[in-house]
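Lab meeting minutes (informal)
Scribe: AK
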Amino acid sequence: MSESKSWIDVLKAEFGPQLQSLTVRHDEVTVEVLPGDWIVVAQGLRDHPALAFDMLIDLCGVDYLEYGRSEWSTDSASAQGFSRGVSPATSGRFTFDEAPDLHDRAGPRFAVVMHLLSVVHNRRLRVRAWLPDDEFPEIESVTGVWAGANWFEREAFDLFGILFTGHPDLRRILTDYGFVGHPFRKDFPLIGHVEMRYDPEQQRVVYQPVTIEPRVLVPKVIRDDHRYATGEKAEEEKDA
């Protein structure tokens, strides 16, 4: 415990004003920084001898557009049962034109998250930055700090449309050439926009508007039970 506390104290002392928050949950440490401090903090986390986070394990984008919104409440039961949950209520179930307006959430929509590892000290750290512009999410590239961020950032750009300034080769990495949109955004239709098939007459693969009808078989449910209980609530359920 003392060792864990000491390196967390180093985090606070080294980056105090730059840390928007620092939380420790389930023995996992998460810090949040502003996009403008992204590179400075990244370099400090790598170069400070007491921290030495020399390995970037993962970097990804997150879309919080519908975070905390459920399609089916589990507070009570009814005779209709599952049929209540097959009426879609989140935007990914629809085409863009039919999607309900869910852009009224408080705070930024997009975030970038890094997972770091210190091989020397055998410690892990999660770093998150919220991107203030929902229409043009942008942050500096950390490829100059960890070269392994290259493909991770390309993936976040491809799937979420997050721009990484200073990236040496920011282009799509998973979707096809000419793909329109970013498929991991919550308002991107689950069925997509286009489908492709082999045309025997043209003897090539052709693209056409998607013909799949959207079907909701598994509603989005946010459960509240013992698996997610914490603090006093967890102790009460444990004693019970």
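Next up, CB showed the second protein from the same session:
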Amino acid sequence: MEHYLFKQLAFVRSRLLTAAEGVTEEMADLIPQGYRNSIRWQLGHVYVVCERFAFQYIGLPLHMPDGFKGWFENGTSPLDSPNTIPYPSLQELKTLLIDQQERISESLKDRMQTKIVPSYTTSGGMTMETPEEFLSFDLYHEGLHTSVIKMYKKLLYIN
């Protein structure tokens, strides 16, 4: 039987991708005044964090394209990036985000309760020790960035 979190992750991911609809390549790199990141960054960041949460801490291989950690990891910003490699297109990001969901459910379907040693504590103080806990937390993280994309579209007048 499929773990309930895979359905929730698919739903939240579909909301993220829906929020990004209507954004062009040019719009994807606009940064609202007073902020440090773009819609492209939001999408890439969600991918990088979910990749770590789903695969890294349990010791599975990451699918991390060249440049992603430097561009999209926590604390990064397009304002600080040297751009020696071109950013991924929106379509590339969307494809990675869609494919990631299948890899997660296939790789973790029988490992959701596997203990991770040592446990991981986020910068905000949340401690996690199983893929189930990581993916539950990822729902919050991805929802937060979905809201940011929606807000950016309003601030940048993208409908």
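CB comment: The first helix runs from residue 4 to 19.
No objections, moving on.
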